[in-house]
Each structure stands twice: as structure tokens, then as C-alpha cells.
Amino acid sequence: MPKVRLLLALTVGGLLARLDARPGFDDTGVLAGLVFLSAGVFGALAPQKPWRWALAVGLWIPLAGIARDGNTGALLALVIAVIGAYVGAAVRRLISPVDAGS
Questions:
Q1: Which has the closest alpha carbon to 52: 8, 99, 97?
Q2: pLDDT tens for each residue of 63-95
Q3: Burial of 97 (0-12, 13-18, 19+ CB in 10 A)
Q4: Is 74 among the domain residues?
Q5: Which residues of 58-77 are buried (b: 16+ CB within 10 A; e: fewer)?
Q6: Is residue 65 part of a domain?
Q7: What is the pTM of this model?
Q8: I need a labelling partner for 91 at 20 to 30 A (CA). Which of 24, 38, 40, 60 fits?
Q9: Residue 49, SS3?
Q10: Whole domain around residue 31: which residue ranges?
Q11: CA gap 50, 42 in Å, rounded
Q12: 28, 73 contact by CB (below 8 A)
């Protein structure tokens, strides 16, 4: 199951990067919210290593932005993903204790 979640998180991140690359898409706030929420959901599902979810979801946008346009400002998406994943993990830990092995 952890590999399925990781594959799903990578897919979500890739889809968000693809959305960001669309010529008519210019709503940074919506994209930032989607990155935050997506990373937060994965952080809540498996809160042991939230950095893993932040990278899986949030790394695609900066990689594509830097490769495509040299846009280093796209690294902000990774920061938003880190915050989202750790907030999701914290909320999960507050709501219910988590086993270290899952």
C-alpha cells in the first residue's frame, strides 16, 4: 500500500505540473491551494515521513518551471507542499495516534 500511495502522490504532482504548464492557466492561487491540499491529504494518510509526500507532490512544478522557463520562483510550490504535508501529518497525529510501522 505505501508504494501505491507514493505512485498516486507522484501522479497528482505530475498532473498539477501539467496544469501549471497549460498556456491559458495563470491562476497561481488555485494551483498553490491544490498543492497544499494534495500534500496535506497524503501527509494525513501516512504522517510518518511528510517530507516524502511534499517531494512527491511538490517537486514536479519547480522541475518543469525551471526546465521550461528558467523560473526559479516555481520553487515556492515545493515550500507550499512541505507546509501542506506537515500540516496534514500534524492534524492526523492530533486526531488519532499513528503506529510507527505503518
A1: 8
A2: 998 998 898 888 999 999 999 999 999 999 999
A3: exposed
A4: yes
A5: bbbbbbbbeeeeeeeebbbb
A6: yes
A7: 0.88
A8: 60
A9: coil
A10: 2-95
A11: 8
A12: no
Residue 60 in grid coordinates: 514536479
Classify residue 102: in a domain, yes or no.
no
Residue 15 CB neighbours (<10 A)? 14
CA distance 50 to 46: 7
Q: What is the pLDDT of residue 59?
A: 95
Given a contact cutoff of 8 angstroms between Cβ atoms, the answer to whether 74 and 31 are in contact is no
In the chain, how many domains are there?
Answer: 1
Q: Which of 5, 10, 99 has its CA nearest to residue 61?
A: 10
How many Å apart are CA 51 and CA 42, to the nearest integer?
A: 10
Q: What is the pLDDT of residue 98?
A: 60
One-letter amino acid identity for 68? R
Tell whether 100 is covered by a domain.
Answer: no
Asked if 5 and 42 touch (Cβ cutoff 8 Å), the reply is yes
